[in-house]
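Hi R.,

Quick one: here's the XRE family transcriptional regulator sequence you asked about.
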Amino acid sequence: MAEPGERDDWDAVARAIQNRLDETRSTQMEIASRARVSLTTLRELQHNLNPRRRRPQTLSAVSEALGWPAGYLVQVLHGEAAEPHADESADPVLTSLSGLEQEIRALRARVDQIERQLADGDA
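And here's the predicted structure, written out as tokens:
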């Protein structure tokens, strides 16, 4: 039988925080301030440094500071399907941004391919 906390996925929490910071273009300082946690605590969570049991209030505060429901990061930690706010998942602006991000990734891949072909032709 697994000990409490044994299956916690702190790497998933770190990825979720990093992705959200990238999405929102927020700084660590802004989020730490909104969550009322130390910058060190946020950095530890974001980079999975010193993984250890955290107070649920800490993860809730960081979740809310990132614009998620309070239990979001706890769900991520436990490997549960975490859902953003309902209005966020239906937001047409966020949907458009997501589509634009996909198109930009596809364009980058095409440019990289063209650059490789040109470099091969020069060699």
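Residues 1-82 form a domain with the 434 Repressor (Amino-terminal Domain) fold (CATH 1.10.260.40).

Cheers,
M.
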